[in-house]
Design brief:
Elements: E1 14-16, E2 22-24, E3 42-47, E4 50-55, E5 58-60, E6 63-64, E7 68-70, H1 76-86, H2 90-101
Antiparallel strand pairs: 1-2, 3-4, 4-7, 5-6
Length: 102
């Protein structure tokens, strides 16, 4: 199983678009924070008014996957990608977290 090197900060990432207000990439339109487990493996991105998620799983030493998905209201394409391409599932993540804290 391939894992992401280092840690990923899930804090809000702000970017400034020309002639637009600052946008928090890690938030949904309603203002509630994004809570999906996939953000440990994906980097949020924002281009021309559209949210994207870019896979950061290391596939070869020093090379990230880079697969990009358009993100609307669902992250299922991203979780399917992690399971089918990288063998990473939410259940594995939950098991890993429980091992750390118990």
């Amino acid at each position: 199983m391939t894992e992401v090197e280092g840690t990923h900060d899930n804090s809000d990432t702000e970017i400034e678009q020309p002639n637009q207000k600052r946008i928090k990439l890690n938030e949904r339109r309603g203002g509630s924070k994004v809570r999906s487990w996939i953000w440990k493996y994906f980097e949020p991105n924002f281009k021309e008014g559209v949210r994207y998620a870019v896979c950061k799983v290391e596939v070869v030493v020093g090379k990230e996957c880079g697969k990009t998905y358009k993100i609307g209201t669902s992250t299922s394409n991203c979780s399917d990608h992690l399971a089918n391409i990288h063998g990473i599932t939410q259940e594995q993540e939950e098991a890993n977290v429980s091992k750390i804290y118990y």
